[in-house]
Structure formats: structure tokens, C-alpha cells
Amino acid sequence: MSQNPPNLRPDIAPAPRIGDTRRPGQPAIGMVSLGCPKALVDSERILTRLRAEGYAISPDYSGADAVIVNTCGFLDSAKAESLDAIGEALSANGKVIVTGCLGAEPEFITGAHPKVLAVTGPHQYEQVLDAVHGAVPPDPDPFVDLLPATGVTLTPRHYSYLKISEGCNHKCKFCIIPDMRGRLQSRPHRAVLREAEKLVEAGVKELLVISQDTSAYGTDWKDRDEKAPILSLARDLGQLGAWVRMHYVYPYPHVREMIPMMAEGLILPYLDIPFQHAHPEVLKRMARPAAAARTLDEIAAWRRDCPEIVLRSTFIVGYPGETEAEFQTLLDWLDEAQLDRVGCFRYENVDGARSNALPDHVPDEVKDERWHRFMEKAQAISEAKLAAKVGQRIEVIVDEVDDEAATCRTRADAPEIDGNLFIDEGFEALSPGQIVTIEVDEAGEYDLWGRLA
Q: Which residues are in the MTTase N-terminal domain (predicted)?
């Protein structure tokens, strides 16, 4: 039984879960998947295609004939983490293929690790497969190597990420994701729905909808019939009988049309919205919409139309030029907004980001001090909101059962990044994927405890 730490990075996907089945003589590929859930989906697609060609998936370096490292390039610290992972794979295995966001900078990787076999960019699946073929030729046995109906998944069987688009049309000064992953490219509605249907048929109980900009889904289609295709997609996903959780939703005006679906119970009353800051001048320096006051009005309207809605967001403190007064505005805004789930980054320069050239960079010690003050405020809000749930009966989904407790999540909690609900008495008959009703009898800063109702 483990509790989520308050400083858990909100951009990180759950750790990949890789099985360990391999026939004699079958070539095996290891996978290290870093970064966000969108990268985890890319890893799943790569492994699914390799699995279809007869490769086994190795859970460790020693059992692999080669290793793929799917990298992250979101922050300089993430780049350093990726380089460390590549070095570790080279030391432990020797045959390493690099892909993912950092792969958009091949010279950066080969400069640090010249012995890697190949470097490919994000979602370049064919190039990854070509590199694997060159390092470890396939040896399929069509009578033995069977591919699961849902492909290879790196998450528990009862939930799955559903990526609906690639790329982003925003030009935020602190972000280089559009440079690495390109402009918005939405998957066809039918393809997304077909994938979701297959996942639910295979036993998935929760679909986590992800993209770089979920609410912009479909707006890149020139011949579209509707202004906001995400609305019809959300409604269709809501008909499948699984929990549908929306991530990375920018607060465009049409998002308010999604709220009645939450009130109806079609999709979960949960919105993950990257507000980033609240002071209009900071937002302008970020090249983001500077409408924090109107955002408060929008939040009030969402809560009026769906009182049980849960709001998660991420923020950046210590952005270049951020004054103490601007930071205090953010704290005051958070007091008023009363967001349920909050993550926070200390600003970092990222090679290639336009924010690097801004004047008045904030000293690291000031960033740290503001981060602690921000998280203290967010923690107090979380603690009060969770305390109000004591005595309530709510539905939870079981994620894991061990000797100590069943670790569950409420509708208000996404995997890994939000809180847990623990059942530590009478939980022995529960199993992962079950949805049960519990009564909350204790609350902490980020987690709840309860018993079966």
C-alpha cells in the first residue's frame, strides 16, 4: 500500500507493466518508456507491431536481444533523465535504439551516446521497426505467437490510455512539443471509437482520453460538419459503458457543452486543464490566453451545471519575469478557484524554447520557495475537500490488492497523478478492475480510506 507523494510530476505516465512470456529461441525486445501517457501509448503501438512480427517483450535488459528507449524532451531535466536511461541500457545490454521526443534531436543523443544503433523521432513507428529488424531479425512462429485482441498494453488490464490526436497548434513560449511532434493531427472519429470499443470488449473499465490539446480534437479537419468534434466523440465514448476521463482539455468556450454529459453520467465529471498561471502578464509572456478572471466565471458555471465536477490543473512557478506580486495573484486565484487536484512545475529552460530569451529569470532558490508555498496552499485545499467526503458513499475502481489493502481510485482520481482510496478491512475478495461502492471513513491530505458499503 503506497500513498501518492504531493510532488509527483503530473506529466509522467505510470510505470510500464511488461509480461514475461517467451517461447524457446524467440527474439526479445526490451522497452524503457519515459515521459507522459502519450509516449506510453507510442510504446504500446511499437510493441504491438513487434509482437505481431513474432518478437517477445522482455521485462529486463538481460533477457532482451535489444532495447528500445522511448525518450522525453519536455524539460531539460527530462532530457537528462533520458540520456541517463540510454546510458544505463547501453551498459546493461549494449544494443539500444532510441525513439520519442528527444529523438527529434539526434545529434544531441549521439553526441552523448555514439554507440546507439539508431535514433528516430516521435511516432516514427516504421523507422523503429526497421532499426529493430537490423539489430535483431524477426523469427515468427504463426502457430505460437498470438497477439492479444487489444495489442500490447503497458497499463493494468482495467484501464487504458486512448490517444485521439498528435501534435499541437499552440505556440507557448516555454514549450517545444509542437517543434518535436508537429501541428495538430486528429485521428478519425471512427478509428478512435473502434479502438475504444475493442478495449472495452477486452475488459477495460476506464478510458483515459489523451492528446496534446484534447478540446481541439478535429478542428484540423477542413471538411468537418461540426465546430467542435470532441463533443460528438465524447458522447459516443460515453455510450460504451466504461468510465471516460478527459485529460489536457484547454478551456475553450465549447468545453461548457461537455459539462451536461458529465451531469448525465456519460463521461466522468473530471476535467484536466493546463491553466499554467493566473496573472495576465505572466500568461502573456507565456503566449497563452490571458483570461484568468473569465476562467473563474467559467469554473463557476461548470460547477453550477455539474456540482460534482472535479478539476485538475498544472501550473508553472518562477517563469521568467514573475514578480512576487504576480505569484501572489496566482495564490489568490487558487484560493478562489479551489481546484481539486493540482500539480506544479518549477520553470526550467528548455533548449529551443523562446522563453529562454526572456529577461529577468527567477533565481532557483526563489523558484523553490514559491513552489513550496504553492504546494502548501494546494495541499490545504485538497485536505479540506477530502475531509468533506467523510461519511459519503461513492464508487471506486480497484487498482491493486496486496496483503495490506486494496488500492482504489474514485471518479475524481486519475491513475498515478491523483489520490488513492484505501480499503484496509474486508478487502480480500476484491480484484483489480472491480467497481464497488464504499463509505469514506477517513481522509488525509491527498488520499482517502473507506470500507465496503
A: 27-137
